[in-house]
Design brief:
Layout: H1 3-25, H2 28-39, H3 42-49, H4 54-72, H5 80-92, H6 97-101
Helix pairs in contact: 1-2, 1-3, 1-4, 4-5
C-alpha cells in the first residue's frame, strides 16, 4: 500500500472516529463539532496529505480508545474489549511492515 493512501485513509478515519467518540459520550452535535474542528486543523491536513503513516496510527489508536471506553463504562458488549486489543495491535503495525514494504 502506498504511504500516501494510508495517510489519507488514516486522516479520514481519524475524523470519523472522533465523531464517534463525541457522539457516543456526549451528543451528536458535539461529535460533529469535534470532527469539524479536527478536520480543519492545519496539522491534520498536512499529515493526511503527506506520505506520513502516523495518521493511520492515530486512527487505530483512537478506535482502541473508543472501544475501551465503551467497554469499561458498560455501554458496549462484553466482547468489545477484544477489539481494544485488536486495534491497539494494528496501530503498532504501520511503523514496521508498512515502512519495510515501501522500500524499493
Amino acid at each position: 500500500m502506498d504511504p500516501a493512501v494510508a495517510g489519507g485513509l488514516g486522516g479520514v478515519g481519524l475524523i470519523w472516529a472522533t465523531y464517534l467518540l463525541g457522539k457516543e459520550f456526549f451528543t451528536a452535535r458535539i461529535g460533529f463539532l469535534s470532527a469539524a474542528i479536527l478536520a480543519t486543523s492545519n496539522r491534520v491536513i498536512w499529515e493526511a496529505r503527506s506520505a506520513h503513516i502516523d495518521m493511520l496510527f492515530c486512527f487505530l489508536f483512537v478506535l482502541s480508545i473508543y472501544f475501551a471506553a465503551r467497554s469499561l463504562l458498560g455501554r458496549g458488549r462484553s466482547n468489545e474489549m477484544l477489539l481494544v486489543y485488536v486495534f491497539m495491535a494494528l496501530a503498532t503495525l504501520p511503523r514496521g511492515w508498512l515502512v519495510l514494504s515501501c522500500r524499493r
